Amino acid sequence: xxxxxxxxxxxxxxxxxxxxxxxxxxxxxxxxxxxxxxxxxxxxxxxxxxxxxxxxxxxxxxxxxxxxxxxxxxxxxxxxxxxxxxxxxxxxxxxxxxxxxxxxxxxxxxxxxxxxxxxxxxxxxxxxxxxxxxxxxxxxxxxxxxxxxxxxxxxxxxxxxxxxxxxxxxxxxxxxxxxxxxxxxxxxxxxxxxxxxxxxxxxxxxxxxxxxxxxxxxxxxxxxxxxxxxxxxxxxxxxxxxxxxxxxxxxxxxxxxxxxxxxxxxxxxxxxxxxxxxxxxxxxxxxxxxxxxxxx
Length: 296
Prior knowledge:
This protein has 296 residues and is mostly beta strands.
């Protein structure tokens, strides 16, 4: 009898997941014939503007409404060192290698409305990151942080094996899982109630605003909130030298369900989400836009 009750309980838990379906309603190549290889795409919350880096590291901004691409900076911006703030500005970090072979970084902002580019931190050696916030943005620097105002709203970022969460002007620091290689890619859910991040060796972790672990979603990378209930992530495999497969997954935030949006052979990676729009690139730097419907 006890065994039967356990089986029935497991079946009840699986019913919602079994009833879920995802339909890819559209998929198209972006900037085909207009731009060369493009990497590290970042959508704003409204989903109408897109940041990306070219193969030389120059940062560009694409406006979906006007179909116009603007060069933000020709200086090198590495990886996910660029983001949209809640004030509409772009926050980013450029870097160069000095004559002493050390890497020097500088925090900057770009106002797309005016075209104004500003330097907000002095050039310095050491880790530096751009942080999006609900009312503005920040650049976390070794010497002195830059924030766009006295109240930038809510934000989340990582430093080493710690995730930092800004809530109501209070900064909270958590280390919910052990990870000797550190955390990456922290982001707030759209409703601001949860944080997702990647812990090296452990995968995607979801916590609440008090640092309590809510779910572990698997050993995938670059999580991005699609909405309050789902995240999109990269599932990449390598042979120690190069990628052998990479695909985009849709994962339920409680960890109970997931599905593939692209096949492993697609070599799709680096997903970003905004207002129902999904953008990703491929290992060859081809940008794609995808739209989906989720049926529960």
